[in-house]
Amino acid sequence: MQILVPTARAKEPKPALFYSYSKLCNVLFAFALHRREHNNGINTYAVHPGTMTGTGILRHQGAIGKAMNFVAKPWGKTLKQGAATVVYCAADPELSNISGRYFESCWDDEKYHEVALTRDEALQDALWQHTEKLLDKFSVHGE
């Protein structure tokens, strides 16, 4: 868990690795939420919008970021295309009884991510507990 939630003294990961960790946390959290809420009728999905250009994610990478955007543009998705998977998961009646899955490009893409890591319930729970501690630390009690 320390690699996902570094201490103040830990060396900060490189931006690309930090980005990957944040994406892993999104998937872990979505699957933990599924385990807690699916029996209450709430479906959750981990959704990858695909490689998109025009998001500004590489804005701090200077010339390299501009070059990467230029090269990726013909194969990347527009913002509307990237949003399609989120809309699909939220609105398609075929998914009304499906939850706790990983989707990309409007299909169940479970086999293309690190299933052993993302399905690790102990890691999911550790992230969930750490999130609760952070929320307690920064929330105003009584409101």
How many runs of DSSP E, i.e. beta strands? 3
Distance between the termini: 30 Å
The dominant shape is globular
Beta-strand content: 5-15%
Which stretches are low in confidence, meaning pLDDT under 50 for 5 or more residues running? none
How many domain regions? 1
Radius of gyration using CA atoms only = 17 Å
Proportion of residues in helical segments? 40-55%
**What structural category do the secondary elements indicate?**
mainly alpha
Report the mean per-residue pLDDT as an integer.
85
The strands making up the biggest β-sheet line up spatially as: 1-2-3
Please tally the helical runs, counting DSSP H or I stretches of 4 or more residues. Answer: 5
| Main sheet characteristics | 3 strands, mixed
Give the H and E element order: HEHHEEHH
Secondary structure blueprint with pairings:
Layout: H1 15-37, E1 45-48, H2 62-72, H3 79-91, E2 101-104, E3 107-108, H4 115-118, H5 121-138
Helix pairs in contact: 1-5
